[in-house]
Structures are given as C-alpha cells and as structure tokens.
Amino acid sequence: MTTAIVIVLGLATVVVVLGAVAATRRTRAREPVRTPPAAPGESPARDPEADPDFFDPRTIKVGDTVYVEAARYRAVGALHCTMQGEKWTEYLLDEGARRYNWLSVEERPGKEGEPLHLEVLLWTDVPTQGMVPARHMLIVDGLEFYPIERGTAAFRSEGTTGLPERGLLDFADYRAGDGRLLSFQRVQGGQWEASYARPLTPGSIRVDRLP
Fold first, then answer.
1. Residue span of the structural domain in which 65 resides
2. pLDDT tens, position by position, for the chain (211 residues)?
3. Residue 1 lies inside a defined structural domain of this protein
4. Contact in structure between 24 and 197 (CB atoms under 8 Å)
C-alpha cells in the first residue's frame, strides 16, 4: 500500500468512480509504522487523544472537508473493515478533477508494554501492469519488496466508494528495505490493484465540518 494512509469516494458518475477506485488501500505491516522523531529544536509529535488541539482522524465523517498537510479533499465515502477482531476505516478522499486517494486510520497496539497508537496512511496507486502478488520477493520501480502479511478482510461501505455495500477484500502486503510499504488488494476475486503507503502524523490532518 502506498501514498494514500487508504482510503473514500463520491461522484456524479459511478462509472468514473469504479474506474478510479477498484479496491481499498490497506497495509497490515506487522511492525507498526511510527511517527519519525522530531528534528532538533522541534517539538515531538503529540497524541490526538491527549491533546485537544489536535484533530482525531478517527472521527472523520463522510461529507467532511479534509485537509492533509497542504492538500484539500472531500471525504466522499468510507470502508469499515474487520479481520479476526481487528477494525480499521479507510476514507475515500476526492481531490477534484477525478483524482482520489485512500486514507486509512487504525488504532494499533504497540510492542509489549507500549500503549496503543494511531496508524494513519495515505495511499497512492502504483501502475503494476497486471502484476499479481507473489509469496516471495517482488521488484517494483527498481526496489525489492518482501512479503510481510496476506489475508482476507470483510468490509462495509458508507457513502460513495464504487464498491458493493458489503463484501470481502484480499490483500498482500510487502515492505522494502527503506521502509516503503506496498500493498496489493482485490475485492471479491476481482483484479489486483497495487499502491504505496506514506505514513502521516495524526496532527497533519484537520477537518472542516458543516454544523
């Protein structure tokens, strides 16, 4: 899974949506993606639960205007996913001009003795030209990606996503030596789609919400 932290869609034409968004974007890396340490002189990242000045990405709603760093999106849909007791949400963000990104948000456990933390990933499609996920190393864009996990999750759609109201999605996740994440996903036996993931700090997201 790539730039897109997975994943929402809502348009005048469902055909366009289906062509633009074939599957959710989600990585299930066993090693959690953590916020990088602050540079010297900068304040460390803050916990949105503990700091009321930070917007909590878990509260994004379909219809919200979402700002991710310098980019402005509209949340047009969401997928609520579950697998073996784990839950996460992927929001489909409409950037305009038929451009979409998935934003995935999940509360994940830390290592032993560490508290829960938010994993927020922004996904970007990867043109893999019919490539399918293998159980061994893959080379994409000149980088070697090694498998970390694969499985099947159930999802429920909200808003406009171009996907069924309910269904199953298969995924296969990989990681490169530089930490880049790659994910293949397909919905209910459809065509495999691939994307890269870029981790975001929860504090880099804010929302404008109509009363």
1. 57-208
2. 433 333 322 323 333 333 334 445 554 443 433 333 334 444 444 444 445 567 889 999 999 999 998 899 999 999 999 999 889 999 999 998 778 999 999 987 767 767 777 889 999 888 887 889 999 999 998 999 999 999 999 999 999 999 999 999 999 999 999 989 999 999 988 899 999 998 898 789 999 886 6
3. no
4. no
Does 120 reside within a domain?
yes
Six token digits for residue 207: 């929302």
Distances, alpha carbon 179 to alpha carbons 24, 61, 114, 131, in Å: 21, 30, 21, 21
Locate all alpha helices (DSSP H) within the chain, ordered by sequence.
14-20
Around Cβ 74, how many Cβ atoms within 10 Å? 18
Number of domains observed in the structure of the chain? 1
Residue 88 structure tokens: 């996460």
Q: Are strands 166-176 and 138-140 parallel, antiparallel or unpaired?
A: unpaired
Q: Is residue 25 part of a domain?
A: no
Give the helix, strand, coil percentages of the chain, each rounded to 5: 5, 50, 45
What three-state secondary structure class fits 119?
A: strand
pTM of this prediction?
Answer: 0.75
